[in-house]
Design goal:
Number of helices: 15
Shape: globular
Helix content: 40-55%
Mean pLDDT: 89
Low-confidence stretches: 1-24
Largest sheet: 4 strands, parallel
CATH topology of the largest domain: Rossmann fold
CATH architecture of the largest domain: 3-Layer(aba) Sandwich
Number of strands: 14
Number of domains: 2
Structural class: alpha/beta
Distance between the termini: 66 Å
Radius of gyration: 23 Å
Order of helices and strands: HEEEHEHHEEHEHEHHEEHEEHEHHEHHH
């Protein structure tokens, strides 16, 4: 019996030496983040702190939100988060892009901090604390899907991540294909109203990219960043075909239509002023829900080219990826809701 045991041990050791056989797997993994940094993490992450609000939504989609011990919610509907994603809603915040709470992070003892490429200050603090951090980037469809792949690998949810990425790319490509007949002389110019109607975002933001996919042009070409204050003279010079108020814009559609300062704009005269829908988060943000924003915007810009059944698309999307069963009346409420989301300092 002892001889047989010795033989088995020798075979196991030999298998390890040549890289095969039933050796114990390493309990760490190496992740390459969006910047190319190699980060060593546990294979089974159970204590993750997230300071990027867009990452949390995708972690919920792939069923890895239970690995979070703190998160950032950003431009979300707090009541809907409590109702539909109660665990996420219950989590504390460890700060955000410009104000990482060092004491809170240390006390939480995370295995990883999930951050964004734009969060320079927070990333530097994480580095000083000696805590592994993975940097993501969601401001383009390409980097968004790459970041989704990274999160899938981090949490052992590659299949779930790939499934959503396939859905996302399929819908985006469908919109591009359906609007292929739109030419440069018929393209619609889009103006986004942000926190105030006279604030807009630059063309390096994700919202500008989904406008392009939906066949439109963001009028603020050459402008960078968000919350850019612009004059009414500039808006008249841009002369947008469509004005889209984002869900956190303080002014309503009715406010713009009634404001004398806006009324000489052809888009206002034609009542081409809309409020972007929202549900868990604002749809135009770089979150899974942005698929719906792209189809909604294509319907708004080019009703002669496309007519997506948003009721069905919304119902199928939330049922499959958020485990939420919405009635037709609830979906109608989503599409007609004009109440703004109030952004906080944590956004």
């Amino acid at each position: 019996m002892k001889s047989i045991f010795r033989i088995v041990c020798i075979l196991i050791i030999a298998g390890c030496l040549v890289g095969t056989g039933p050796c114990l797997a390493d309990d760490t993994q190496t992740i390459v983040d969006i910047t190319g940094n190699q980060v060593t993490l546990p294979v089974n992450i159970t204590r993750a702190v997230n300071i990027d609000p867009f990452a949390a939504q995708f972690l919920y989609v792939i069923g890895a939100d239970d690995r979070l011990i703190a998160t950032q919610h950003g431009p979300s509907d707090a009541e809907k988060l409590k109702k539909y994603t109660p665990y996420l809603a219950s989590l504390p915040s460890a700060g955000h892009k410009d104000d990482l709470n060092k004491e809170e992070v240390v006390a939480l003892k995370p295995e990883v901090v999930i951050s964004s490429i734009d969060y320079v200050n927070a990333n530097e603090v994480s580095k000083q604390l000696g805590i592994p951090f993975v940097i993501l980037d969601f401001e383009s469809p390409e980097n968004l899907t790459r970041s989704y792949q990274i999160m899938g690998q981090m949490f052992g949810k590659e299949r779930e991540a790939d499934e959503f990425i396939s859905y996302y790319n399929g819908k985006m490509n469908q919109v591009r294909t359906d609007l292929a007949a739109v030419t440069s002389d018929t393209v619609k110019k889009v103006y986004y109203g942000q926190r105030k109607a006279t604030q807009t975002l630059g063309d390096n933001y994700y919202e500008a990219r989904i406008a392009t996919i939906a066949g439109g042009d963001n009028v603020a070409e050459g402008v960078k960043g968000g919350d850019n204050v612009v004059s009414m003279d500039q808006i008249y010079t841009w002369n947008p075909d469509v004005i889209v108020l984002l869900p956190y814009c303080a002014q309503s559609v009715d406010d713009i239509l009634a404001d004398p300062a806006w009324q000489a704009l052809p888009a206002v005269q034609k009542k081409k002023v809309y409020r972007m829908p929202k549900f868990l988060m604002t749809w135009e943000m770089p979150v899974p829900e942005s698929v719906l924003a792209t189809m909604w915007l294509a319907n708004v810009l080019y009703p002669g080219y496309v007519n997506y059944d948003l009721t069905q698309e919304i119902k199928e999307f939330y049922q499959k990826y958020y485990r939420i069963n919405l009635s037709d009346n609830e979906i109608l409420s989503i599409l007609s809701d004009s109440a703004p989301i109030i952004l906080t300092g944590m956004s």
